Amino acid sequence: MENNNSKTNIENINKNLGINDPPLTIGNLSASKEKRPDSIKTILFVDDHKFIIRNLRNKLEAIGYKVYSAYNGQEAVDEYFKIKPDIVFLDVVMPVKDGITALKEIKRIVPTSKIVMMSGLGFDDEIAENIKILGLVEKGADGFLIKPVNVVSINKKVWDLAVNS
């Protein structure tokens, strides 16, 4: 059970980062975001923290997505070409192969793939600077989410990409 102090801390961090999406608690999805867009059905979610994937999988599947998972960059590349998901959420820092290398490998073969990078590399202005330093946009990233992510922020990013593609 989440205590009020940790919820308040997360809300303060999000406010400082300019993130308007609240952390997900049961029942706070807005009516317009309780479903997935018709054009995007499958998600490959890649993070070396298994509890993050486990936490999000059921919630994403409840709004209509089929969710696949991988736990490092090499698994991400292998799974991508096996399942051909509509969108990938890919952590930047992982063992075996990092997310940036996986991003480049997938985009080299399938330039139209939709890949959203995720990281918790710093706060406020550091995030923008890290995105520039890592060259994520130049390497083909279709978006960026600041961790910790939640179902609302993921679904919003999916809708943004579905509408703007």
Would you write up a description of this structure?
This protein has about 160 residues and is an alpha/beta fold. It has one domain (about 40-165): Response regulator (Rossmann fold, 3-Layer(aba) Sandwich), CATH 3.40.50. Helix content is about 45%, strand content about 15%. The protein has six helices and five strands, in the order H-E-H-E-H-E-H-E-H-E-H. It has a five-stranded parallel sheet, with helices on both faces. Helix 3 (about 75-85) packs parallel to helix 4.
Radius of gyration: 15 Å
Task: Report the CATH topology name.
Answer: Rossmann fold
Structurally, the number of domains stands at: 1
Q: Based on helices, strands and strand pairing, what is the structural class?
A: alpha/beta
CATH superfamily: Response regulator
CATH class bucket: Alpha Beta
Proportion of residues in extended strands: 5-15%
| Low-pLDDT segments | 1-32
CATH architecture: 3-Layer(aba) Sandwich
| Average of the residue pLDDT scores | 77
Instruction: Give the helices and strands as they follow along the chain.
Output: HEHEHEHEHEH
> What is the helical fraction, as a range of percent?
40-55%
Report how far apart the termini are.
39 Å
Q: What is the overall number of helices? A: 6
Shape: globular
Order of strands, widest sheet? 2-1-3-4-5
The largest β sheet comes out as:
5 strands, parallel
Number of strands: 5
Summarize this structure briefly.
The protein has 6 helices and 5 strands, in the order αβαβαβαβαβα.
